[in-house]
Amino acid sequence: MAFFAARQPILDLEKRIFGYELLFRSGAENVFPDVDPEKATSNMIEGLQLDLGLDKMVAGSLAFINFTEKSILQALPNLLPKKQVVIEILEDVSPSKSVYVQLKKLAIEGYILALDDFVHDAAWEPFYKICQIIKVDCKAITTLELEKIGELKLRHPHIKLLAEKVESYDEFLLYKSKGFELFQGYFFSKPEMFK
Fold first, then answer.
1. What pTM was estimated for this model as a whole?
2. Sign of the CA dihedral running 172, 177, 178, 182
3. Residues 6+ apart with CB under 8 A from 160
């Protein structure tokens, strides 16, 4: 049985490869399948370990992989090498004490943590100290939310801001001017399929 995945590059300010977001696919069609996110995460980990391997998928760069609350609490990120993986904490993960404890362990072990599709909420405040990247959906953010993220960045200068769904040069310049350091979207590249 074949394993399918897609990767989309994440670039820095100079448009150099910083890493790739790895996206689960259930077949040769390059769209996210209608599957449970838990299954997508576990299948991605299994496929990387048994079939493709991280080195083939990311060529020495970082691999951004989505993790659900359940997969974080089950310590699934520990199955992957910390020097190659960015743990993307999905937007529907609750900022609970148990999630914080598990993520703090991962941070102490040397994993890079990223909050995905971020919308500022005071409940996430303790997490900012242990997260290194905040991913912001350019298509879903308001001007006010963008200002709040700018304030958050001033309080936590160690955090890199990643603009995702960048689809034009003007959007790239806008988010660059707002202090974003990493970029992802169709302006740079559509996801590339792997089998």
1. 0.84
2. positive
3. 132, 133, 134, 181, 182
> What are the residues whose beta carbons fall under 8 Å from the beta carbon of 80, sequence distance 6 or more?
45, 48, 54, 63, 65
| DSSP one-letter string for 124-158 | GGGGGGT--EEEEETTT--HHHHHHHHHHHHH-TT
Type of residue at 3: F
> pLDDT digit of tens for each residue in the chain (195 aa)?
456 777 889 999 998 999 998 886 654 454 444 556 666 555 555 555 544 567 777 788 899 999 999 999 999 899 888 998 999 998 889 999 999 999 999 999 999 999 998 877 788 999 999 999 999 998 888 888 888 888 889 999 999 999 999 999 899 999 999 999 999 987 777 667 665
Separation of alpha carbons 14 and 117, rounded Å: 23
Question: Which residues, including other chains, have CB under 8 Å from residue 84's CB and lie 6 or more apart?
Answer: 54, 58, 62, 63
